[in-house]
Amino acid sequence: MSTAAATTAADVAVKAVYKQLDCLLQAIHDLQAAGFTDFQVMSPFPRHEIEDLMYKGEPSPIRWMTLAGGITGGTMIFTLASLTHANWPMIIPGGKPLISIPPFLVITFEGTILWASMMTLFGLLIHCGLPATNLHPAIEDPRFTNDCFGIVFTSTGGQTAKILHILEHSGAIEVSNG
Question: What SS3 state is found at 41?
Fold first, then answer.
């Protein structure tokens, strides 16, 4: 087989369309049992069963970005308020400290929430691959946003026959190759 033919065989797209969630879940399980992990699952609405099978209960890395943003924001805002207050000192009667924690708690809280939410948004954009401008045509099937579930292999790695066999025997209403 020539190199061009091997590249073409490896880059074949396979798409399976499902009406029933149970059939989709069985197909995901069968594909993972056969050693396939490089496929995308489409759903018209979020289902925790799909997430459990695909990610095996691993938490999202976005939570660490939220924590880092919250700590950074809280620290930066408290430092900004403290330095601003220290640069323009006032005569404070009664021996109270110039930089006191209670007056700065509200602005520190607001800065923490602002930075945590901005980092969460940034993390979602990065980890979800948004905006998705160059999707494979098989992924852009309008049925996946209406009433059907789907599995799409954008590249089969030369194992198209095995993938087609698994998908055809999993209850798909349509399996297309190419």
Answer: strand
Residue showing tokens 């852009």? 140
The crossing angle, in degrees rounded to 10, of helices 21-33 and 48-55 is 0
Q: Structural domain boundaries of the chain?
A: 18-60+140-177, 62-88+98-127
Top-confidence residue, 9 or 121: 121
CB atoms within 10 A of CB 53: 19
| pLDDT of res. 5 | 45
Residue 3: pLDDT band (50, 70, 90) is very low
Cβ atoms of residues 148 and 18 within 8 Å: yes
Going by the DSSP 8-state scheme, the letter that residue 138 receives in this structure is T
As given in the structure block, the two tokens for residue 123 are 């993390």
Mean pLDDT value across the chain? 89
